[in-house]
């Protein structure tokens, strides 16, 4: 049972045309075409508007008043049905946005559900099956099954009775005047949606609640339906698909191995009907699209999670990229920092194309998730998109476009790695051999049908022919789908932190919405990214290849724990309101490192000089500790190992490293004497570590480089 605005609700009765499906406009077109064909005159808008919600019998009586007793209404209606079915079978049923989410929530709230439609049963069943929503309803009551059509209450009374409920226990959903009068007179809890025409005073007086669309009702329903918490790792994704398309711009480790999972869990009730993900990696593109799915492997739990309903598109195919930006309600930008400037050009083209489109569905804003390992990454992204827009349109349009959409910073709290091309190549070869073996084992036995309900001989032959036609193609595809294609290895931490800016995100099950996302970004940058890099530099210089294996070394394990505690100590006063998240992320980081057996130290240690910039993850923490007069010996050790890694493992030029160290210590916001002490400690540490390597490192005094001060 559901309590909705103090009404105890046990059932939900839905009108079909105009309420669930956007078919009234289509119906107008087909009736006009059919009447033109049969009587040489189109039915008028006035007549058609008065027909909204009427049964066929009542609509025929009205037609005779408009067009005379001899009007062949039955033939016109039959021809209109044919035209409408042709359109639906070719293009699908136009579903009202938000319908699937509403149906799923009501069903999971334990309500009994029925359709009460003026349409004939044959039409109603085809539409409900075509739209894949028949599964939500216990029964149908149709226009050809009642004596008196809407506005008489018979159809709603009959539907409630069949559900063994009283009308006052049922939500009754309608869009037309005749329909809302029927529901109101039946005694239901009436809910009116706007469809073709604005509701008049009579309609509003009959409705207990009025909503512009399904989404507005869905927002109201949120307050009265149970909130589904964070999913556990092996929890299946929702089966029902909503009407949304979402995009992942950058099908890399985070995009494919993390964001795709978050989008698949969605709100816990439904998931997007389509996910599009872009890549330039041909092997990944062709593999996923051939298999129809791929899997993320969680080694800690020995669990493979399959991601379905995702199509990979070519990032170099401008048309495909524009379509992603035209169709998507949410797009995750999973791009490295160095790619933002170049990718901003296609983002700008996509946003401009969406702006210029006359398609009504493109009026909704895109929610952008900025998945970039950088504090305040949103401003970098916006800057580059703005510059790209100004190259193709004027400033007013550019600013208008940017103001239309939601740009949300995020903090990713999970380590993910993708398979190398070589590893994927080996996996595909093995599975190809299995597939060829499967094909050679197929036999040509016919399928025997067995059903409790007897079929006629003709029906049996028809269904046998259909199955035979599909079997050859279906079985091979099914075999491919049953073979997991492992593309990513991931840690098990579930949440992602997201800036609370878009109403769409409030329903997302796996997101923790944060008003001050910069607090979480600082924690992630200093505690997670900084400690991760320092750990990898240290582990690499003493010969470890994988983070997880390195953590079995007592020296590495002890250092990791000490540097995490040290960084936490410095962050307490910077983000005083995030103590809970600080502890959670610290524990999560250490747990992730302990099990990161497939996370190469080389990957984590890459680009050390960028990570050692004065305002970045390591020196940023050191500067903070100096300000607070806190110990920083473990941070200092991490900085030393970063430079040693650059010299020893990457063979960077000693002069380049020297210049970097000069420049970044000089720019720190500490006193000159503190700079000298810090520089002396770093240099001494580097020289001590390099003693036995034969690498020379001569650090020039800061006093000789006043241009850096």
UniProtKB/TrEMBL annotation:
It is an enzyme of class 3 (hydrolase). Pfam families: HAD_2, Mannitol_dh_C. Residues 524-657 form the Mannitol dehydrogenase C-terminal domain. The keyword Acetylation does not apply. InterPro entries: 6-PGluconate_DH-like_C_sf (IPR008927), 6PGD_dom2 (IPR013328), HAD-like_sf (IPR036412), HAD-SF_hydro_IA (IPR006439), HAD_2 (IPR041492), HAD_sf (IPR023214), Mannitol_DH_C (IPR013118), PGP-like_dom2 (IPR023198). Its EC number is 3.1.3.-. One of its GO terms (molecular function) is oxidoreductase activity. Keywords: Hydrolase, Oxidoreductase. SUPFAM superfamilies: 6-phosphogluconate dehydrogenase C-terminal domain-like, HAD-like. This is Phosphorylated carbohydrates phosphatase.
